[in-house]
């Protein structure tokens, strides 16, 4: 089941050895030649005196795609629209991610891959189309602006380039993977997910946790090192459980969090605490949030969720036989909770009374697994690219 989730699709060659020997900026500036040199230095091409493409994959080339600090990615507008739609940034008053329902669309999207020199220029890095970046570009900050994502099955090596903000280009728009991740191909979904996860991690971890000095980026974007005490840190994910709880009548539990927009309901979730096993977290969270006791707990699937840096561990659970089956929301985090039959949930979604989790979320797949098929269309859905 995990491989079907939008943020768990695609298998990339992560090229861990290349992270230590290949500079992503050199890849963008030197293309295939940099790949061959990196293979020679890393000893991945066999005979060190005869450089070959990494891992011996013929026809390797370098491709760049863009991500901006808040996690938006540049995608090609379906149909090649001449005028890009307005960029709506997360947290803005209009179109805020926290206030906007999920996106549904039958169109597929693709990451925009500009020429390497244009990507460098947009990131303000030397070597771009104008030969140099802006005056404030400095070597210390360059490393975190280009990150080696890995190689896809066609032999292409991909570099994510962080730009200061969305740039307007005909036929290109900026989208949040929370809303459009399910519309990307398997490879693009995996690439975008990793890039957003790294960008957000770097934004949060700028200073050493041991001595407080500003850290510098190493390993092609996949680690940081403190120049003072030498501490090395790697990107982290915080484990969280998410569970579809079912009662003895085969009804599913849904709830509304007090921090969510009106009408949006989902299954329960919570972070795994220190020294706690995930199945124990399922039981604790359900008891704390709605006062119900869970019996049988079974793993369902797992999904990375870089908003901000979670690893969602999905479970199905049944109430403990003979226990109270009436949810009692805690009134702080959860303000409404109830069990739904399949017919009740279908009617609530179709009428717009309940907005279910979006199609990128594991919560959606937990519900559809219980529902036995695709949930009904919601009148609260939006266009993935915010064109209406």
TrEMBL record:
Its EC number is 3.6.1.22. It catalyses: a 5'-end NAD(+)-phospho-ribonucleoside in mRNA + H2O = a 5'-end phospho-adenosine-phospho-ribonucleoside in mRNA + beta-nicotinamide D-ribonucleotide + 2 H(+). GO terms for molecular function: hydrolase activity. Pfam families: NUDIX (PF00293), NUDIX-like (PF09296), Zn_ribbon_NUD (PF09297). Residues 235-368 form the Nudix hydrolase domain. It is an enzyme of class 3 (hydrolase). Keywords: Hydrolase, Magnesium, Metal-binding, NAD. SUPFAM superfamilies: Nudix. Residues 76-104 are annotated as: Disordered. Its cofactor is Zn(2+); Mg(2+). Belongs to the Nudix hydrolase family. NudC subfamily. This is NAD(+) diphosphatase.
């Amino acid at each position: 089941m995990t491989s079907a989730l939008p943020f768990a699709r695609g298998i990339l060659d992560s090229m861990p050895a290349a992270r230590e020997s290949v500079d992503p900026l050199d890849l963008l500036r030197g293309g295939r030649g940099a790949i061959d040199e990196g293979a020679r230095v890393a000893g991945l091409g066999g005979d060190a005196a005869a450089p070959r493409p990494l891992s011996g994959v013929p026809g390797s080339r370098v491709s760049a795609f863009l991500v901006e600090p808040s996690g938006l990615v540049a995608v090609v507008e379906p149909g090649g629209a001449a005028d890009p739609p307005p960029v709506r940034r997360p947290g803005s008053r209009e179109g805020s991610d926290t206030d906007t329902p999920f996106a549904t669309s039958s169109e597929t999207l693709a990451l925009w891959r500009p020429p390497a020199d244009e990507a460098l220029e947009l990131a303000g890095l030397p070597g771009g189309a104008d030969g140099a970046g802006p005056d404030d570009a400095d070597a210390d900050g360059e490393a975190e602006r280009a990150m080696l994502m890995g190689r896809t099955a066609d032999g292409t090596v991909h570099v994510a380039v962080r730009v200061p903000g969305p740039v307007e280009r005909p036929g290109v728009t900026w989208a949040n993977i929370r809303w459009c991740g399910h519309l990307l191909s398997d490879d693009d979904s995996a690439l975008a997910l990793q890039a957003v996860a790294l960008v957000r991690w770097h934004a949060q971890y700028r200073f050493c946790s041991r001595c407080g000095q500003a850290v510098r980026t190493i390993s092609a974007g996949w680690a940081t090192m403190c120049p003072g005490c030498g501490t090395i840190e790697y990107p982290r994910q915080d484990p969280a459980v998410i569970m579809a709880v079912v009662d003895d009548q085969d009804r599913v539990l849904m709830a509304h969090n007090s921090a969510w927009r009106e009408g949006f309901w989902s299954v329960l979730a919570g972070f795994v605490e220190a020294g706690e096993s995930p199945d124990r977290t399922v039981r604790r969270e359900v008891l704390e949030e709605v006062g119900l006791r869970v019996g049988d707990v079974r793993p369902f699937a797992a999904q990375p969720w870089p908003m901000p840096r979670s690893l969602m561990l999905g479970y199905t659970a049944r109430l403990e036989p003979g226990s109270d089956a009436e949810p009692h929301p805690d009134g702080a985090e959860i303000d409404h909770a109830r069990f739904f039959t399949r017919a009740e949930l279908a009617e609530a979604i179709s009428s717009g009374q309940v907005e279910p989790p979006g199609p990128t979320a594991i919560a959606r797949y937990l519900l559809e697994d219980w529902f036995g098929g695709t949930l009904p269309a919601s009148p609260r859905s939006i266009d993935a690219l915010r064109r209406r």
